[in-house]
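Raw record, unedited: glucan endo-1,3-beta-D-glucosidase
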Amino acid sequence: MVRICSFLFIFLCLLGYGGLAKGFSGLAVNWGLQSTHPLPPDIVVRLLKDNGFNKVKLFEADPGALRALGRSGIQVMVGIPNDMLASLASAVANAEAWVQQNVSNYISNHGTDIRSVAIGNEPFLQDYKDQFVNTIFPALENIQAALIKAGLGKQVKATIPLNADVYRTDSGLPSGGYFRPELQNLMMNIIKFLQDNGGFLTINIYPFLSLQADPNFPKEYAFFNNTASPLFDGSVVYTNVYDANFDTLISALEKNGFGRMPVVVGEVGWPTDGDASANIDNAKRFTQALVDRIVQGQGSPRRRTPPDVYIFSLVDEDHKSTLPGNFERHWGIFKYDGSIKYPLDMGNGRAIVPAKGVKYLAKQWCVMSPSAGVSDPNTLAQSITYACENGDCTSLGYGSSCGNLDAQSNASYAFNTYFQTMNQSKDACSFNNLAVITTVDPSKPPCRFEIMIDTRKQKASPSVYRSSAAKIEGIFAALILGIVGSFI
Ligand SMILES: *[C@@H]1O[C@H](CO)[C@@H](O)[C@H](O)[C@H]1NC(C)=O
Ligand SMILES: *[C@@H]1O[C@H](CO)[C@@H](O)[C@H](O)[C@H]1NC(C)=O
Ligand SMILES: *[C@@H]1O[C@H](CO)[C@@H](O)[C@H](O)[C@H]1NC(C)=O
Ligand SMILES: *[C@@H]1O[C@H](CO)[C@@H](O)[C@H](O)[C@H]1NC(C)=O
């Protein structure tokens, strides 16, 4: 359709495209809470609305988030973490209590528009070594029964977010898609059950990981644009790995008689830091192309009806595990404070806008003292290690935004991230007199020395940051007690 547009008619063609997008009602996004200083939920809800998000996915039934989403007009998918599956699988009464407390309660008492429950998160990930294989289906059955008992059987749908590694294709072609043989029977039970109860399948797709894991991966194929050497699958042409991956699932479903099973993309995005291919340019390019597809109502070659697509993710989370890589803390289309990382057209020319009303700690940083003679390089190394273990040094690695700092600035960066994480407590900028507080911004673009947000001044719900803050308080206590104090 686009190809036959001459320059003169581009405008009309765009209008034609706009016609395709008539069903477009808004964007969907994942809101993760694994931050040492999460943004107050009311600020986040405003951020969502200001940017045209009308669907949000939570990884847990966070009370602060669910309350703030009440009567917001935003539809909610609420997640159940894997570590709750065993208990929910063991007794339907546990599932009933969960639904009562974490779903019914918010719908009736807060007007939260909960539309679905995501049971577990990528439970079949090969790293989990079958841990959840026996509990995921009974947990699904119990939650579904509990939803029906609560009178929510129609309103709230069940789903299981899966990693794309539940299916594969030997030919490398989407049409060859099949489910991992060891999961085939279980997947059939799950899919049939979801279908019988009006639920849907959720799949997470990560073109970034394809590119990151394989230096020979064709870059344009990750960015929706391998028009130069596309993949031919019979008469179907694939110019991007996202469609090819999605259609591999669709063909696996078709082969098993579930060709009409509804599928939602639960996570897809591009990180901006912490890896050589995780940078602003790549993230902007990928995310803009993704948003454009969503706005235009584009489906895949095998399924023309566009799926719901939850972008991963809303904001950076400085408390996520870095096991998968340093990029893990940088998936946000916004920074930790809701500020904009890169310009983005959110649809129909509407520019992305930052969070409003965010309060910050004082304009000061902790840096390595210019006069600190390093008599003991061990002390310095230990101090940096300690600061990085408790702060966030994921921007310091090779190819990252702060990967080019000299040794002194490198130490400063580590000290500052710890200082900010500790709410700029004076004691957190000592490091055996190696560090001092400064009011001169030490940032060296593109490397930013951040100032933490002040969660005290805002009317946030304390429940949101309780868990991570408690851990840091524990670390702080250990520090005061001298357990790790030898180099403080
Ligand atoms: C949800 O409900 C259960 C009760 O079964 C409760 O134990 C749990 O803490 C609640 N909250 C979350 C975030 O799951
Ligand atoms: C896609 O690739 C073509 C060349 O193959 C290039 O001209 C075009 O600008 C690219 N588009 C995007 C959005 O990257
Ligand atoms: C900077 O700090 C990081 C994290 O401790 C370390 O891996 C890196 O080697 C350091 N670079 C320099 C130039 O000191
Ligand atoms: C930082 O301040 C917030 C808000 O008062 C608090 O909840 C949190 O525990 C503090 N963090 C640390 C590490 O002291």
